[in-house]
């Protein structure tokens, strides 16, 4: 591969339940803290799900909340990279929300309006990715491919989501995907990825943005390179609208495609940032896929999920998780899966439990598996000079 | 090289209900945009060499939602403080519509397609990104065929009329079979502004098949940033439908189709370059 077409990350921005910066997210994860909490407005509404990973950067009833949260993440990433929107493409995922309920009541407001407002300052392509929970990872992968193919030199990629509303809480409860309240439990422990007590995800708001550009351009600018993007894979389960096959075949397929794209063998991966939602079937399928992918090496490849700490930020999830994977690349530190205490039978992996693990990890895979069956995996690598 | 192999449009689901009960059984649980997209996609997909291995690119609706969904939202807003909101139920499919590009997922499931899927859309002008993605995927050599599908409704206030469109492309030269393309003049086949659904309804009666029967190449999607932003009419399918109508009337040679600004993203002037051999 020509060096001019190697793709690197030079900026990140993250807003999550752990805070309004990438540093907040990373430090919070390393401390084993959960930002998921009980939200009084949902208690007052009498919902049976009252916890969530709320972002405090914009009021919960602000109709423009989606754009404000996304904008802050994008601005932070651009500032870190030192790039201008006019010289970068934009590949961004949001939900497909159709209305907002704010202080003024019910308002028709398609998610596309948020995307269009965010995208306008950027150069083309400006693509809005909509593949459910895989969207954020696919946005990064598509941006990577566009740059590697020589179509653009730089791109902002990521996603944002503001679905922490009664509509979605009730809806996901109906889909048996979300963790219902339990009186005997700390609200911050609502989401327990891979744990034998898991009972669903905690819904969250959030935004994650990455600046991708060619290695050549980054070097020319003396930019700080956070990681190299070396592979992307995508697949479709073609199985069911809201659950994966138990054997995780589609998840495995997308990871194998990412490895092939990167020219790597499975054992070249040093750590995995898992999708790890805390749903019963989803975690089983993911663990099965990872064990089959790695063979016996699964016992030695650390796996971590951030969703116990920040909840499931839907279209933003993949981007926030990619940012964590990049930090792991840079530092070798794998954060713990918050709220994972006793891995369930069938969820056996080399889980990072209780405290961060210092490793030699330099090549990290981040994966996302969408509710409708779209799966995406992206591989990052530490770059040394 | 990228060839347009087949195209299909759907505005009316009555024919699906009557003629394809199995397809109707598959799609009836979805909202109108997804039903229309799937109906068109299934028709165009019948012309594929192997739809299981075609790249799938699906445009989510810009005018999303359904009457049921909006009734739910209004119910929530009007709910009296003394009652528990948790007693209100949501049809799970409504939730999935707001999370997932359901036409993509449902089509992949129906056809056992495990290869590349790209969900785009929800914002104005993404259809042209979809055509760009078709060119990229087929040029990359990963797949031989690519299916672009889109569905939308005319108005979120007055759902009930809409448009689904699907285009099948191939790297291999095959004559194009255009199915159900509406013969209309440029500028008329667009989503009306809010409250203008009657204009669209008036066009339904003129729909008929236009077999093209010639090789049609998709050559490029060109973009030029406009000096100033333009107002748009966000609609996932209308712009592509109009492109097809123009292509159907184009007799031979290269066509540089300048996308009307209302079908763009408000930022770029988009030109789709095609050729009818």
Describe the structure in your own words.
- The complex is a heterodimer of chains A (385) and B (277).
- Chain A is an alpha/beta fold and 385 residues long.
- Chain A has one domain: Peroxisomal Thiolase, Chain A, domain 1, CATH 3.40.47.
- Chain A is built from 11 helices and 17 strands.
- An 11-stranded mixed beta sheet of chain A has the order 7-4-8-9-1-10-17-16-11-12-14, sandwiched between helices. A two-stranded antiparallel ribbon of chain A has the order 2-3. A two-stranded antiparallel sheet of chain A has the order 5-6.
- Chain B has 277 residues and is an alpha/beta fold.
- Chain B has a single domain, classed as Peroxisomal Thiolase, Chain A, domain 1 (3-Layer(aba) Sandwich).
- Chain B contains 9 helices and 9 strands.
- In chain B, a hairpin with an 8-residue loop joins strand 4 (145-153) and strand 5.
- The model of chain B is unreliable at 183-209 (pLDDT under 50).
- The interface between A and B is large, with 66 and 68 residues.
